[in-house]
């Protein structure tokens, strides 16, 4: 027993050391192992409705999509997977969502501990002061917050499913599945036809939409709001930037979606004005990362696809279950351009100055995302001969872990599916890994080269 206890303590110390010294390595390894574990579970015969083993590529694709909380599927979730399979997918979404928030918070903790004294004090205002303590308390807080919201969503959905004659067991199961999928921005639906039949049902769309919105804000924002909800002036800069950018993007996307789809009879054109407005706002929330759709995206206009390409690439809040380059990255880039246009030396927002090192990280994450999307789209088109508009949409959805699709995923061959699997994995761990690696790789140099400004533009 003593030897087992010593081994367990040694393993715990090793995990703590890796988590704080190399969060990037921990992120890559943890997600890869988790994906393989759930792939094995989904490959078992009882996970499918037919009782036969699912093809390995489909089990791997579904596992990756669930753990990376994406929502892209190669088989119909509601008809292909048995209740046990749906439970496994729901658990994979839950584990993946918890892992994302916890690892993102650990990366912030590692960064703040590796900086100098002055930089640590500044970083603490955005990370450690937001509740990033030891691993146990961090994980406990994340579990409490996420589970509470998921159960609240399920509690609102259960009565509605009961009125639709789903039965007690199915109503509870579907409601809990939707709660987990919504908060974690996963976009998986247990209904064989998805949310299309509920396009005008506010009782279902409102809880799911709010769950997606809350889940996309991020753990640092939750804790900051919980502690300082009475005093908005003391909200952190990260919280303010996230809330403002998310709100602005929601209204902008709703406005453009109304312009593009209001008269499209295949999507929103045949609905009443009230139903159309409700669907527009529901979709505007899901366009960035939620992945739920109340109408067939494949029948939408190409302008809508382009709009959603941009919104999916931006994604949600840092430290959240949403994907993309994150809204704070976009906010920093816009603020930098605004400062340059006004001839300001510093990037400023809400009475705070944003350091140039933050801008460098934002530029690096954006360029990495663009590089992955462009290269992967080229490879995907070469593998499938699919047109650029649909190929780009599918790749951006995979990289941004959004899950919206024009309907081509199920018809792909194994090579194209593997390309999307790798893209989902890179999209989930890429920005977090790159951001933490860049922040932890700061070097102090005594000698600096003389400054000279090249001509830009």
UniProtKB/TrEMBL annotation:
<feature type="transmembrane region" description="Helical">
    <location>
        <begin position="56"/>
        <end position="75"/>
    </location>
</feature>
<keyword id="KW-0406">Ion transport</keyword>
<keyword id="KW-1003">Cell membrane</keyword>
<feature type="transmembrane region" description="Helical">
    <location>
        <begin position="358"/>
        <end position="382"/>
    </location>
</feature>
<feature type="transmembrane region" description="Helical">
    <location>
        <begin position="420"/>
        <end position="440"/>
    </location>
</feature>
<protein>
    <submittedName>
        <fullName>Trk-type K+ transport system, membrane component</fullName>
    </submittedName>
</protein>
<dbReference type="GO" id="GO:0030001">
    <property type="term" value="P:metal ion transport"/>
</dbReference>
<feature type="transmembrane region" description="Helical">
    <location>
        <begin position="202"/>
        <end position="225"/>
    </location>
</feature>
<feature type="transmembrane region" description="Helical">
    <location>
        <begin position="310"/>
        <end position="338"/>
    </location>
</feature>
<keyword id="KW-1133">Transmembrane helix</keyword>
<dbReference type="GO" id="GO:0008324">
    <property type="term" value="F:monoatomic cation transmembrane transporter activity"/>
</dbReference>
<dbReference type="GO" id="GO:0005886">
    <property type="term" value="C:plasma membrane"/>
</dbReference>
<keyword id="KW-0472">Membrane</keyword>
<keyword id="KW-0812">Transmembrane</keyword>
<dbReference type="InterPro" id="IPR003445">
    <property type="entry name" value="Cat_transpt"/>
</dbReference>
<feature type="transmembrane region" description="Helical">
    <location>
        <begin position="87"/>
        <end position="111"/>
    </location>
</feature>
<feature type="transmembrane region" description="Helical">
    <location>
        <begin position="138"/>
        <end position="158"/>
    </location>
</feature>
<keyword id="KW-0813">Transport</keyword>
<dbReference type="Pfam" id="PF02386">
    <property type="entry name" value="TrkH"/>
</dbReference>
<feature type="transmembrane region" description="Helical">
    <location>
        <begin position="26"/>
        <end position="44"/>
    </location>
</feature>
<feature type="transmembrane region" description="Helical">
    <location>
        <begin position="237"/>
        <end position="260"/>
    </location>
</feature>
